[in-house]
């Protein structure tokens, strides 16, 4: 019997705002079989969020200081806010035994796959761009200007789907099926 431990695998799960990426990740987290990368962000904390769930919150000057100190494995400006993952966060999770779930934008996918080429990226896609637009409006948490900016960024994001290894379409009202599809992709990759 081979008692050597297989390396921990990293799975990126991402898609533009309104595709359901966060909901898919939350569904996977509930199983207790995965560890989630906690990203450091400069955006304001929402009422339902707390430090470390699902982000670490810092100010822009603090984030810039962390960049200068070479603390991040990757970072980007997304929707006007700084977002990044510290090297310490990745080291902490790689020391564990659970597969790692990491949420980043397409720029992060590009960077991570260059630095950690065995990472598997799963794109959470909307059924159509019009459905994505409607989801952004229905969330009720963004101003019309923010929705306009997110739509523009989403259009750009959709031109980078070639960076991903898999795509899961999150059909309206079928989140459980999308979670099951992503779980099946992960299970397949863990077996290989």
UniProtKB/TrEMBL annotation:
Keyword Ubl conjugation attached: no
Domain Guanylate kinase-like, first and last residues per copy: 8-187
Keyword terms, alphabetized: ATP-binding, Kinase, Nucleotide-binding, Transferase
Enzyme class: transferase
Protein origin, superkingdom: Bacteria
Pfam families: Guanylate_kin (PF00625)
Name the UniProt record assigns to this protein: Guanylate kinase
Native organism: Candidatus Buchananbacteria bacterium RIFCSPHIGHO2_02_FULL_56_16
């Amino acid at each position: 019997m081979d008692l050597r431990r297989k390396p921990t695998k990293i799975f990126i799960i991402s898609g533009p705002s309104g595709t359901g990426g966060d909901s898919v990740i939350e569904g996977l987290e509930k199983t207790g079989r995965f560890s989630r990368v906690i990203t450091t962000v400069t955006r304001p904390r929402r009422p339902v969020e707390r430090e470390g769930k699902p982000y670490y919150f810092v100010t822009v000057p603090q984030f810039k200081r962390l960049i200068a100190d070479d603390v991040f494995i990757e970072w980007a400006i997304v929707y006007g806010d700084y977002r990044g993952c510290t090297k310490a966060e990745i080291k902490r999770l790689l020391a564990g035994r659970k597969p790692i779930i990491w949420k980043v934008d397409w720029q992060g996918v590009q960077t991570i796959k260059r630095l950690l080429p065995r990472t598997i990226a799963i794109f959470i896609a909307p059924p159509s761009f019009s459905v994505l637009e409607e989801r952004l409006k229905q969330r009720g948490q963004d101003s019309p200007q923010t929705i306009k900016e997110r739509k523009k960024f989403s259009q750009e994001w959709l031109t980078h789907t070639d960076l991903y290894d898999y795509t899961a379409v999150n059909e309206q009202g079928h989140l459980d099926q999308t979670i099951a599809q992503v779980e099946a992709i992960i299970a397949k990759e863990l077996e290989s």
